[in-house]
Amino acid sequence: MLSGLGNRWVLFAGAVLAVAAVLSNEYYFTLLNFIGIHTLLVVGLNLLLGYAGQISLGHAAFFGLGAYTSGILTATCGVNPWLALLAGLVISGLAALLIGIPALKLRGYYLAMATLGFGIIVYIVLNEAQPLTGGPSGLSGIPSLSLAGFPLNTARRLYLLVWPVVGGILALSANLVDSRSGRALRALHDSEAAAESLGVDTSRMKLKIFIWSALYASLAGSLYAHSLNFIAPASFGFMFSIKLVTMVVLGGMASIWGSLLGAGVLTVLPEVLTVFHDFEVIIFGAILMVVMIFLPRGLVRGLMDLWEFRRYKRQGGQIV
Amino acid sequence: MKKIGLVLALTLLALSAAANAADLKEPYIIGGIFSITGPASYLGEPERNCLEMVVEEINAAGGLNGHPLQPVIYDDEGDVTKARLHAEKLLQKDKALAIVGPSLTHTSMTVLEITQKAKLPLISCAAGAAITSPAKDRFWVFKTAQTDQMAVSRIYAYCKKHNLTKVAILTVSTGFGMAGKDQLLGQAPQYGVEVVAQEVFGEKDTDMTPQLTKIRGSAAQAVICWGTGPAPALVAKNLKQLGLTIPLIQSHGVASKKFIELAGDAAEGIILPAGKLVVYKQLPDTDPQKAVCQEYAEKYQAKFKAPESSFGGYAYDAQRLLNAALTKAGSDPAKIRDALEGTRNFVGVSGIFNMSPEDHNGLNPEAFVMVKIHNGDFALID
Amino acid sequence: MPTLSSLLQYFLSGLTNGAIYALIALGFGIIFNATAIINFAQGEMVMLGALCAISLYHLIPSLPLAFLGGVFLVSLVGLVFERLALRPVRDPAPITLIIITVGAAVFLKGLAMLLWGKEAYSLPSFSGNAPLYLGAATIMPQNLWVLGLTAFLVLVLEAFFRLTLVGKAMRATAYNLRAARLVGIAVGRMVQLSFGLAAALGAGAGILIAPLTLGVYDMGTMLGLKGFSAAIIGGLGSLSGGVLGGLLLGLAESFTSGLISSSYRDAVAFLLLLLVLFLRPQGLMGGRR
Q1: Between residues 229 and 248 of chain B, which touch chain C (CB distance below 8 Å)?
Q2: Tell me, what DSSP letter sits at residue A106?
């Protein structure tokens, strides 16, 4: 269960609280909130990619469904933000179910293609259905979330919601990964045939993970909508889906903490390096290529593996 | 001998430093957020250039009331999240007095959420109607770009004058296009114009023949195309291909030489509203905007070795408006805002600005002139 | 009510756009036929071909030279890409390869943005701009070039893959890598050849359409995705399937835009993609894999 992981979570909670106490600048909290939201997106995708060996090339769509469901229901219909968030989860979950069932029955990379198509269709609808979504100029007037009457309308207050949520999701995911189903997942990734011979229902597992990843993305979307109080379709396009994949690849597949790293690095780096801007597209492409060619388990995991390998050889180990 | 020389030199240095220090007043920090890279860089890059150009000029002349201007410019890449982060940074870390930009409507919408809360003036270079309305919720927000409402108004006035009462509209699926569509549909009745066909196209689309074929089958006497980028040029070419001879009216989004280059022969005869910058040489000398446009064009070309840009003009006007306000009001954001709102008869590149509490754009349809493309260049008509 | 000439125009427009998608689908098909990989960077080959040719044309105003030069340069890019980005892959799982080709697409787009900027460039039409009339409907001479080349290529490529030794060897490689190696096929060479060929094809398509669509750094993304959809619709393993898929897609888009609504035109390609994936994943003419 959570034993053995206990220390890590105490450390995490401590760090989150310490940062809240120490920092005073709203800018840093805004940045941290975005890192948190991106982490939620990346963890889900990571589970899918690292443990189910499947890729979603349209994950921005679930992000967008969550954001727009929350946005439209709260701004246009005056629904309670928490109910709207739940509605977003339901919609994204259903969408994932509808796409996942046919796509995951087949072997191969049909999910990649289906999510690609789905992602683009959602983007087009968000852009064109102006009366509903506000069109390309976006949807404004989205209210902030409030907890028991306490409005979360500054970045610092939102931080106190976002990061515990991130912590919870990370813990949930770690739990999932270490449980019996989780081990079955890893088995599935390594060899589908073997997993099946052991009685693991691979397509059912894959579907479950896909739906979880869509739910995480929807949650992230709702939080995003309520933190900016404004959303526009441009944030939910194909390029963002690719950015998410890059974050997964960078942080390391099948690594929960790697998700945090990948999301963190690729959110903060463009802020810090102004030179980055012109080259941002090229750098993302290069990361995807270089990391996958040489360190297919992702940058962090790959470097750790390399380190382990060197240490092993230094100790005189033999590679059989 | 040497020692005395050294002491003298040091004393002189110290004295001059002291003298300079006495002259040095705190700089005015101006924030800038533009889409310098990314798909809207044709807006953001010239805007950034203009801001820097104006600031440099002021600083070379000794600053505003002795205060140098210190620009802090960030690139939002057309991304809402980044625009938001940069706005926070400018407010919290850089302590900007006011922000110029962003370049696009959706990025402006997210930035104004913060500047309104922080009670800091924002002068946007984008045109979206929602940026400055409703006026009561946009106390701190201004914009310098001419609005679609004005452009459409000019176009319909032209249509009415030339008895083009049935029109077809073809708009792009971007914020700019959809805003134009809303105006075209909304203003038609008051000019006695009937919209007999409405089609849309994507920003990256390369073939609009199906839409134009549908328009050809309608009773339209003119086609109004509303878009930016290369697609409107392709619309012009497709129109020619299909043998449609009815007049093609474009939006001010294509008021650049690049459009004429891309459309080639098909550009001949196209009519559009444009800011006066595009035809300033043809303006009468009595037009107060002629001198301002000429100065802008010459300075921009000299400094950046590139043709002057109407979009850059938005930032040029914004910064100059801000300079006037800073000169009058000093470094108190509330006073700067009041000064901006009190702007009267300010001659800019984009038009003559007359701000008021209800109108934080300050322009009227006169900011546009109707031009026709003839022999590869823009010609002033009417 | 749409008139006959309108319908004819929709048909012609659909056919000409469809031919473009068909050419790109062919590129996907060639690589898939030889390697069972989906090369998401195919769309960028189209873009690079167009922009290289335009740059060459600005240096030496000769269309044939620009065409050959562009095709040649981009073929090199394809070969280099295979050698540098795909050959060294330690763990050639499909997911890994998909991510690499997506990364390559993004990389090439970013590179093009740095080299050519964000402007659009034009290339003169191969045989003038006078529209040709079919009743009241029109078609541009350049469209005929595209249609002509597509038809020509389909025949040539089918013959190549079915009748020549090299072609058969390439198909064998995709079918079963190990067996192909066992019978002495230079597998590495085959894979590289397929990439070079697909890149050449993509470049040719790009140069042909540049006079119609203009060359821009980001023209490859949507074209690649739609060409990919066309390939799936027609069936990845079948070259003529890809062409059929492309033509069908072009017609569907054109008629949707003309008869239903122009707002969701781009969505047509992806709706069809989802439909095919869910109802008949091997595509209309696919039977393999």
Answers
A1: 229-230, 233-234, 240-243
A2: S
Task: Give the closest-approach CA distance of A167 to chain C in angstroms.
Answer: 28
Q: Is residue A97 part of a domain?
A: yes
Residues C5, B333: Cα–Cα separation, whole Å:
63
Gap from A269 CA to chain B (nearest CA, Å): 12
Q: Considering only CA atoms, which of B236, B167, B166, B165 is closest in space to residue B201? A: B236
Which chain C residue has its CA at the smallest distance from B204's CA? C219
Q: Indicate the length of chain C as a whole number.
A: 289
Q: Which domain holds residue B47?
A: 28-146+290-364
> Is A191 in a helix, a strand, or coil?
coil
Complex confidence, ipTM = 0.90
Domain limits for position A50: 6-249
Residues B233, B376: one domain? yes
Task: For residue C236, list chain A residues with Cβ-Cβ distance below 8 A.
Answer: none
* Cβ-nearest to B113 among A34, A130, A229: A229
Instruction: Give the gap in angstroms from C-alpha C104 to the nearest C-alpha of chain A.
Output: 6
B179 contact residues in A (CB cutoff 8 A): 137
> Hey, what are B27's tokens?
């700089």
| A282 domain residue, yes or no | no
- Provide the whole-model pTM: 0.89
Residue B187 sits in the same domain as residue B127: no
Q: Is residue A274 part of a domain?
A: no
- Respond yes or no on whether the N-terminal peptide bond of residue B71 is cis (omega within 30° of 0): no
| Total domains present in chain A | 1
Domains of chain C: 4-279 (1.10.3470)
Mean pLDDT by 10 residues, chain C (289 residues): 85 92 92 86 96 95 93 95 83 82 94 91 89 86 90 87 85 77 82 91 93 92 93 88 94 92 90 91 73
Which residues in chain C are contacts of A117 at CB distance < 8 A?
229, 270-271, 273-274, 277
Q: How far apart are CA A301 and CA B189, in angstroms?
A: 65
Contact: B128, A280; criterion CB under 8 Å: no
Q: Examine residue B359 and state whether it is found in any structural domain, yes or no.
A: yes
